[in-house]
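Example record

One chain of 245 residues, shown exactly as stored in the release files.
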Amino acid sequence: MDLIQPEWPAPANVQAFFTTRSGGVSQGIYQGLNLGIHVGDDPALVMQNRQLLAQQLALPAAPIWLDQVHGTEVLRAEAPVITPPQADAATTTQIGLPLTVMTADCLPVLFCDKSGTVVATAHAGWRGLCAGVLEKTIQAMHVAPSDLLAWIGPAIGPSAFEVGDEVKAAFVAHDPHANAAFVAKNDKWFADLFMLARQRISVAGVTAIYGGNQCTFSDAKRFYSYRRDGQTGRMAGLIWLTIKS
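Predicted structure tokens for this chain:
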């Protein structure tokens, strides 16, 4: 199982990982460690993949999976749940409660505070990003933004994310500095989601921002990509708190 560990100075009691498609039992277009039960894969195989991941990471409890809808709702997680709550972000101060975020081109963003008392996950496709899901996640953590760390996981890169005029206009209307994240090529716009996310996180007051340098679209062997393949699997970012030593 090929797992990515964020390169960030998180406290020792913060555990964080991002999965790739390596490992797992899914077949065909979902080949590998597909963790999305909503994408047409055999549910039994997806559940087996999730169990394999839980064993690999020795998860302290069942992770909280979200019903992601490209919105801005932030779940305040207090205990494991059976039915995935409809939200695109989650935060918790509970020890041993893993949070997840599933992606296949959209931005997965993990947060923690420098004291190791609160963690969060956020799913930021362009719609959620533009609508403020990252800012709302930061606010929901109830910690001074200057005390937070953010890690941006693999997502579709700026050389592959083609968008229309309306996407550029929506971001620039919110912040003129967003104009720098759009490059014109052959009458099309190519958007840098990583830059847009850094801008939003930074304006929200978080200065410790890491990651944002791996493209899902360009590495078919390692990553699922919705824009590249259409019907495909999902990867996941996970984060949880352990007892401080």
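Notes: The first strand starts at residue 3 and ends at 4.
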